[in-house]
Amino acid sequence: MLSRSPSYRLDQVTPLAGRCRGTLIHCTFEAHTVEIPPLDEVVLLAANEYRLKRALFDFGWGFRDHFSSHPHPLHVFPAGNAYRWCKDGYADVTLLALSAGDLNGLLDELGHRNPGDGLWQLSQRGFANPTIYQLVTQFMQHASSASPRLMVDSYCAVIANELGQQWGARGRAGPAVRKLPPAVLKRLIDHIKEHLTQDLSLDELAAITGFSKFHFLRCFKASTGRSPLQYVGDLRVAHARRLLERTALPMDAVARDSGFSGADHLARAFGKATGLSPRAYRTALGGVGGRRRH
Questions:
Q1: Which of 83, 149, 175, 265 has its CA 20 to 30 A from that of 229?
Q2: Which helix (H) or strand (E) holds 107?
């Protein structure tokens, strides 16, 4: 829809393939009015920059001002409703559009009752939530059409849980955070290591523990100090480091054998973890094939 409006400039559009199907969009727009037909997706707008004084929305009973003066306001657009919006100035925004059925199912799994009603409550006015804003912007920065399912699933689960907490529909406090039993943690880590080159998913890892996805995320971090996504990334970088030290494999092969999508993906992750490019790391060892020569 937005691509057909001259008021919008779409800078990045990234399809998401995971537990929640959807799209991440980074775009800018000028002052405009637009009509949106009923959609199958729930849309979360995170404002990176707002140069406007009014944000008028009409969900069927006339325009109402949903403007929030927070530097990075959020807006929720519910699925299944036609609506209009009118913005009176420039904005730079990130849009996260998720299948309504997938998102409602995820919210229900996370323990948030009546997700349709809760999302409708959030749609009635812009609101501030720095945690959600940071998650959405990080998701946009890291996502690509080849993003691992584990990354997509993790971001969607945490964002969904934050939305559920925002409307306060949680029926009861979640279980106390505890560590995974040592035998379960070992079985899980062994599985990750054995399938390091595969596109691991949050569903797959949580199933090994027998916990719900969100409870698994909390218990895993309590056990390791890292999220599953970070932990898998650490293992992949460590494996790449061993290959750089012990073999003369080209970078594409090192990346592939370590679970990265390509040499560029390896370089970004390796540089972030070590401060060196893979090539510089290999060179610093003093010889092709890895080990320093004396």
A1: 175
A2: helix 100-109
**Torsion sign across C-alpha atoms 256, 258, 262, 263:** negative
Is the distance from CB of 161 to CB of 110 less than 8 angstroms?
yes
Q: Report pLDDT for 169.
A: 42
Residue with tokens 């809760």: 118
Q: What is the pLDDT of residue 170?
A: 39
Which pLDDT value is given to residue 174?
47
Q: What are the C-alpha distances in Å from 242 to residues 38, 162, 194, 231, 278?
A: 52, 38, 16, 17, 11
In which residue ranges of the chain is pLDDT below 70? 1-5, 61, 169-177, 286-294
The DSSP bridge pattern shows strands 83-87 and 55-58 to be: antiparallel
Task: Output the pLDDT for position 1.
Answer: 56
Q: Is the dihedral of CA 242, 248, 251, 255 positive or negative?
A: negative
- 71: its two tokens: 């530097």
Is the CB of residue 33 less than 8 Å from the CB of residue 65? no
